[in-house]
Request: fold
Amino acid sequence: MTTALGTAQPTLILRDISWRTYEDLLADLSDRSVPRRTLDRGVLEIMSPTQEHEQTDTAIALLVSTVAEELEIDFLSLGSTTHRHQDLMRGFEPDSSFYIQNLGKVLGKTVDLSVDPLPDLIVEVEVTSDALDKLPIYAALAVPEVWRYAGSKLSILLLAGGCYRESENSAVLPSLSCSCCLRIHPAEPFAQQDCLAQASAPLGRAEPNESAGA
Reply:
């Protein structure tokens, strides 16, 4: 077993980890949302998010939920719920996760990846280059869409042909684009109140007085 410590964010990488060890660790820490654990075929990352990481994730998750509500789209937020698949030897706890298009398949039940789909949308925040690359994990488990924030840039990534390709527009939230996200957070990516106040304007939703006068 080998280990490596990250510098920008408390991160521990362990190698040669069995599935049994991974599940035992999940059971021992089942009542904690941190640290977050990611397994990729024997490589285990244990990460404690920084304040910057959590603020960024909160802002993006709030953006997703606000836009879904504005568009009157039903959704289920599962936050950093653990998703694991033993046959693929992979497991992860995303920063945020949402069921939108597949909501009807999981609503009111405990998700079982042996029969249920992965979340339609996952938020991935990277504030350190030492982190385990999670995109291959998401691709292997067929997560349709990932919103990735890295280097002060928010990218919308869509799964196509087994890999992710950057897109200007979201597939699960129609009318939402990267440029729209930038208008909502022009300079302060962590200002959640700006998201709530301005979400309807970039999406072209009419104000009540405008519709009344039409």
